[in-house]
Each structure stands twice: as structure tokens, then as C-alpha cells.
Amino acid sequence: ALLKSLEEPPPGMLFILVSHKPQQLLPTILSRCLSFALPAPDHQSAALWLSGQGVKNPLAALAAAGFAPLQALQVEEHFEERAKLLRAVQRCGDDAAAVERVGIHWATEQCMALLDGGVRGIHLYTLNKCAATQAIFQNLGIKTSAQLR
């Protein structure tokens, strides 16, 4: 139905197809379309636009978002949380056990937020540190694997 609509659109109909991977579009679709490449804006223009959107540190947001301006709008929301985590880790100094406690606390908070948001599953990658996983489970009130189902 899409090919037929592209081939013979109703009067006054304009289709705009957007793809960040045009090489993956089927040739039958590409053959029915005019192609226009819209490159990403240069960093200065993107930073200026982000400033206009209220982003406090547009260059840092752009860098964190892979220089994708629309994603940079979302990235800035998480800067303060990242900064808090970094400060907490820095306060630990060379105390590896303190860094682990910070990590367990942070992971527990994230898991709680996800569970409260209704996610159905969480995968924990603790690099074979089963004590960290157990601590997170304990903090979440999970005592047996049956509670995970």
C-alpha cells in the first residue's frame, strides 16, 4: 500500500520520509522518492540554537550527545545527576570499598526508579562482583529469586 501511495499519491498529498540510514531503505521506495541530504548543523550553530532552547552548557551537552542537537536537549537533564555521582566518587579518594558503596547506592536508586516506573526487568552487570548484586537485591528488599518473577 505504501508503494502504491508513493507511486500515485492522492491530490494535494505530500509525503516526507526521513531516515538517518537511507542505505537501508528498499530500492523500490528510494526509486519513488526525491532525496535531499540534510547534514547536521555545525557545532557553533547547534550550540547557539541549544542556548536559545535554555541549555546552560550547550557545548558539553553536544559532546555528550555525540553532537546531535536534539539529543543534546535531553542529555542536559542528566548532567546534575552525573555531577552528583562524580562528586560522591571523588570524596571516596582511594578507598575502593567506599567507591563500591557509592556504586551500590547509586545502582539501587536507579533500580528503584525503574521499578517504580513499571519496567518488567533489569539486567545488572557487576563484572563478577556478586556481593554488589546481592547488596543491591537486599537494598531493594529482594530475598529470593522467586520475587524476581
Order of helical and strand elements: HHHHHHHH
* Cα gyration radius (Å): 24 Å
Query: Looking at the structure, what is the overall shape?
Result: flat
Secondary structural class:
mainly alpha
Low-pLDDT stretches: none
- In helices, the fraction of residues equals 40-55%
Counted beta strands: 0
- β-sheet strand percentage: under 5%
Q: Helical region count?
A: 8
Mean pLDDT: 88
- The end-to-end span amounts to 42 Å
How would you characterize the largest beta sheet? none
Overview of the molecule:
Helix 4 crosses helix 5 and helix 7 (96-116) packs across helix 8 (130-140). It is built from 8 helices and no strands. With 149 residues, it is mostly helical. The mean pLDDT is 88. The chain is flat, with a radius of gyration of 24 Å. It is 53% helix and 0% strand. It has helices at residues 2-7, 27-30, 43-52, 58-64, 69-75, 79-91, 96-116, 130-140.
Topology:
Blueprint: H1 2-7, H2 27-30, H3 43-52, H4 58-64, H5 69-75, H6 79-91, H7 96-116, H8 130-140
Supply the key terms.
149 residues, mainly alpha
Short structural summary:
With 149 residues, this protein is mainly α. The protein is 53% helix and 0% strand.
